[in-house]
Amino acid sequence: MSLINMAKREINCKIVYYGIGLCGKTTNLHYIHQAVNPHDVGEMVSIDTETERTLYFDLLPLELGKVHGFNIRFQLYTVPGQILYQQTRISVLKGADCVIFVADSQASKLQENIECWNELQEQLRRMNKDTANFPLVMQWNKRDLQDTLPVSVLEKYLNPYRVPSFEAVAVTGKGVIESLRVGINSTLRKLERI
């Protein structure tokens, strides 16, 4: 749920990049941080460990102007993908206004992607979020690799709600800004209904 700070006249929205380990979540944020006007972004915070590239989160405040006299600020987070960090994923997911699910398109990663998608749906249910109406974006990442599944297969197994989806190559930025733009617009539409 978006946080409204009446004193600062600011609405803070949270977008979480969710997916298996090494699927490209952190790469998305690094690309966005470099591509966006330096005046519009804050400092990116990254905590790395020996076993996981992003142990806790990347934070990227993104200023988007004003709505009804309130400044809109988006904070972009990633979750650690490794199984042993499930509790951290749950903590980061709390309060999310939108999730961009980053799927590794390699055929060898399909089962991991399915398990991660099922975990996300379960966590959203536990937070009393209706997955069918929650702002979600699917990103089919690593489309530049040899062993990728057809998009139709990814859609079949990972996009039952037919939410917007994008082919991506996060290392080059393909599909990254498009995914974020739809995530932001979905979040803003949800805010207008509140």
TrEMBL record:
One Pfam family from the record: Arf
Keyword match Iron-sulfur: no
Keywords: GTP-binding, Nucleotide-binding
GO MF annotation terms: GTP binding; GTPase activity
SUPFAM superfamilies assigned to the protein according to its UniProt record, in alphabetical order: P-loop containing nucleoside triphosphate hydrolases
PANTHER family assigned: ATP/GTP-BINDING PROTEIN-RELATED, GLIDING MOTILITY PROTEIN MGLA
Name by which UniProt lists this protein: Cell polarity determinant GTPase MglA
